[in-house]
Design a protein that fits this description.
Elements: E1 28-33, E2 39-48, E3 53-58, E4 64-70, E5 79-89, H1 91-120
Antiparallel strand pairs: 1-2, 2-5, 3-4
């Protein structure tokens, strides 16, 4: 078998950003298994819901008066989960992503522990 007929010994992956690529902050994910068997999840950011608007009067001296808040939730606690992006993937890809995320979380724990050790030694 000649060198040109052999199977490749390596593969090179190139990363490029799509025109609509964006980096998002996520505090959680929600989703499940689709009827076609694929895994679908949304990444969201979670925050306490504030007023929808604020109105202030302007005094004769030009200073703002106390705010009048509009659209405040009436419940004791109201949390909004703003979906940032949805992801659909095959089960093998979902397992691969889960493994990768666990590895990155472990790496982060090690870095954080080493940093804390250095900080404590100062």
């Amino acid at each position: 078998m000649s060198a040109s007929e052999r199977e490749p010994q390596a593969i090179r992956f190139e990363f490029k950003d799509a025109d609509d690529y964006k980096l998002i902050f996520a505090t959680g994910a929600h989703g499940g298994v689709m009827p076609n068997g694929m895994v679908k999840f949304d990444l969201f950011v979670e925050f306490h819901t504030g007023p929808s608007a604020e109105q202030r009067s302007i005094g004769a001296d030009g200073r703002f008066g106390e705010p009048r808040l509009e659209g405040l939730p009436t419940e004791a606690i109201h949390v909004t989960r703003l979906r940032q992006v949805g992801v659909m993937m095959t089960v093998p890809d979902a397992r691969s992503l889960a493994t990768w995320l666990e590895q990155k979380a472990d790496e982060s724990d090690k870095i954080r522990a080493a940093t804390q050790k250095l900080e404590a030694g100062k």
